[in-house]
Amino acid sequence: MPFEGEFASYKPLARIANSERVQDIVSRCKKQVPDEGPAEAELLIADVKPSDWLPDLVLAIDGSLHPVPVENGYPGAELAYLTVASVILDVKKQRELDQNRPVAPLVARKTEGAGSIDCALPGCNVVVDNEPTPNASFRRVLFDAIQEKRPFSDGETLLETYEALLAYKPSIRSQQCPYEGCEFDYDPRPGMMDCRCEQKLSWYSTDALRIHERFNPVGPNGAVFAEAMQVWERVWVVNFLRWIERDPRRFRLLRNLAIILDGPLAVFGQPAWLSQAIRQELKRINEAVRKVIDSDILIVGIVKSGAFVDHYEILDIPTHGTNGNSRFKPQTAVLLTNEYIRTHIAISAINDKPFGDATYFGRMFFYKTSSGARIVASLPFLTEDARDLSSGDARHFPRLADAMSLLDATFSARFPNAVAPLVSAHAEAAIPLNLGREVLEQLAKKLMSEEKS
Length: 453
What we know:
By secondary structure, the chain is an alpha+beta fold. The strands form 3 sheets. It has an 8-stranded mixed beta sheet with strand order 3-2-1-8-9-12-11-10, with helices on both faces. It has one domain. The protein has helices at residues 10-17, 20-28, 36-42, 91-98, 105-109, 134-148, 158-166, 222-246, 273-293, 307-315, 338-344, 400-410, 420-430, 439-452, and strands at residues 57-69, 78-90, 112-122, 175-176, 185-186, 192-194, 202-204, 257-262, 299-303, 332-335, 362-368, 374-380. α8 packs parallel to α9 (273-293).
């Protein structure tokens, strides 16, 4: 490791690059056959065109976290300021305004309602109240924070929604007590409880997420905070849908509403089990929705970076074989299969478990919008058949044609792989101008006023 302010010279880099060991590994690496990926991808193009459907409202959810040093006399002390923001775009109103351009900025801003929930999570060398350790402090504050948030006055807290998902958690593997040195297994149950040891230390239902197991007592905890943020984002979506379910008359409001989530429809890391719980809960709610409106919920996950995005960009680069044109025409959807992903994006044996089996609750696809923008997205597993990744059957991608139409209408030219609702949601999370406003209360009022009219 270098000293502070010390920079490496180019000589070590040259030595490494020319090393026989490095060259040996490089020569043994599996290499992609140049035309194999594009040829196989073209076979996965969906015979589907965008529908004429457009939502009246779009709900976008995105999170942000900012580590903050704490001056408490202990070295490296930090906490994280975590924000999860939602933006409601009145797309119907925006379409009306577009017909009468130019539009005054103040009027345009009224088509967008934004708000956020936030908390501060303890990190390294931060102990709150009478908790014995920073790890215990993190666990306590995480539980309290999710317990406090009630997006709707007549709905569940985020904790109640999470604990409904907890009921789906597999019990095959035991989990150790969160306290070091305790010999008892943790028993995940709703609320707070006491360990069975003599000290009767506190357990929380959120301990089942196992995020605390990666807690670093002597250094940064960025990965831990990121896992907490992704849980908040995804539980918030389920909380909204469970609020809709409380009054079945609200189901018909989902005909004209789209939900956009930052990132793939997945949960990574320690709380990965939550992805399968969300999948089962979405499937259950969707079955009830279909009985009322004969249509599926529309939830789209937008992937902004990573292996899928990199692969799609390379795949669509103009080449001599495409006469200098991009490979895919506008309004083309490529429905990815397990074999394609395992062969070209995340190398693994085809006969291994399906890609994302333990982490994803949605299927990945590539889409080129009507304007030529590339979008990597995912749609949820709403049936058991949808989990069959062996084929690119369009029926396994719920409301694919509507999703294509949505992406055509909302893509953003400001950033690659971006849609306008998420750009707004990220801006709200990164610079939270409306802290404390409960955005879903606004959505509730909007939906209910339309229901009465």
